[in-house]
């Protein structure tokens, strides 16, 4: 019996297009029968936020960050040609025309394919994000858990 | 006989400086006798555009994207200190002074060294780019082909 | 005796948050007994600048770049929500509240853990940075040295 190949992705970026690239590679690798982990840290955590407003107790600065950061994958901006928020709509229209999967569905698909979605607890703390605000069925861990996965990884990317 | 080492780079970024870094690493790895692939996706595809205007049939949105994206490596902006377009000129002047190779020549050199340049067909479709608009002597493939290369890669980077 | 695992990071970015991610991963890997290298290139070199003004002879453009680039890790901006320079202060206040280590201390810790910090000589040349302007106890090398480390690396990232 051969061991499964491993793909790990650190998703640092909070851009819609970069998160799309991360999830397309992750879903491809899962279809290829890799064991896949996406470790969401810093702005990449926003891809895991629920789109509704969750009532949680926060300090002033955490509340401010929470308000200003996009609430969920569908609200994220583009890394290029964002055009004050018009860019994502354009891209999504084009994607629909080409039957390409939007980001929230790519994330669902990853969960169905057992891609391990991890939220970095240290940066959740910094940005004031609580577990109640994030999607269900994800894991919580720190850099040590990421490294334990990545040191045996065949494909390790930072996006 | 030992197998060749492998380097794969996903070039997602459309920034001149990041593309330079990608091509410098790729050319270095090729000189080290690695098998090297650069997989161009999203804005990174712009590095492969020809600099002339190619007449192709496109829908409205694809035409719009085509107009607004830089036509070829020499037209790309910087990720930092772009100064409304002045930055690239500054960097290029400095590079000339230091006899550093500009991006279009780095790409030529990569082709001479048999670096495999791949354009991501899925994102070409999204951004409305046609094969006629891209450089000759490149390959066209999707995420599956990228993963097949990367899973045996020694150095895999996302830029 | 088993060989040590290896982690290499290319730090291209000059953003405070991305440099933090790089150094947190590097320190984690060092704690895990990996051999760790951070190769600083392009804007990532700014993380290694001393914070005082060092008198060195430079051409006009090199002087200009030197003035405009952040002088050391503590002066770097954020990749997101920089708010014209307010963002880094916010993040640092939050970090202090959570007892998280600021970037300059993460760099010190990396040096104490024998993380190899390398400055890319080719881009130092381009940006006009001199050895006297950078921190002590670092190495100077080019892409060939980076590749020699990375080709045996378990975790190779481009940040």
Describe this structure in words.
- Chains A, B, C: It comes from Niallia taxi.
- Chains A, B, C: InterPro entries: DsrE2-like, DsrEFH-like.
- Chains A, B, C: Pfam families: DrsE_2.
- Three copies of one chain form a homotrimer.
- With 159 residues, the first copy, chain A, is an alpha/beta fold.
- The first copy, chain A, is built from six helices and five strands.
- In chain A, strands 4-3-2-1-5 form a five-stranded parallel beta sheet, sandwiched between helices.
- In chain A, helix 5 (121-127) links the parallel strand 3 and strand 4.
- In chain A, 45% of the residues are buried.
- The model of chain A has no long low-confidence stretch (mean pLDDT 93).
- Chains in contact: A-B, A-C, B-C.
Set out the fold topology:
The structure is a homotrimer of 159-residue chains.
Chain A: E1 6-11, H1 16-31, E2 35-40, H2 60-68, H3 86-97, H4 103-112, E3 116-120, H5 121-127, E4 139-141, H6 143-150, E5 155-158
Parallel strand pairs in A: 1-2, 1-5, 2-3, 3-4
Helix pairs in contact in A: 1-4
Helix content of chain A: 25-40%
Q: Report the CATH topology name of chain A.
A: Hypothetical Protein Ychn, Chain: A
Alpha plus pi helix count of chain A: 6
Order of helices and strands of chain A: EHEHHHEHEHE
Radius of gyration of chain A from the CA trace? 16 Å
Query: How many separate domains make up the residues of chain A?
Result: 1
Instruction: Look at the structure and give the CATH class of chain A.
Output: Alpha Beta
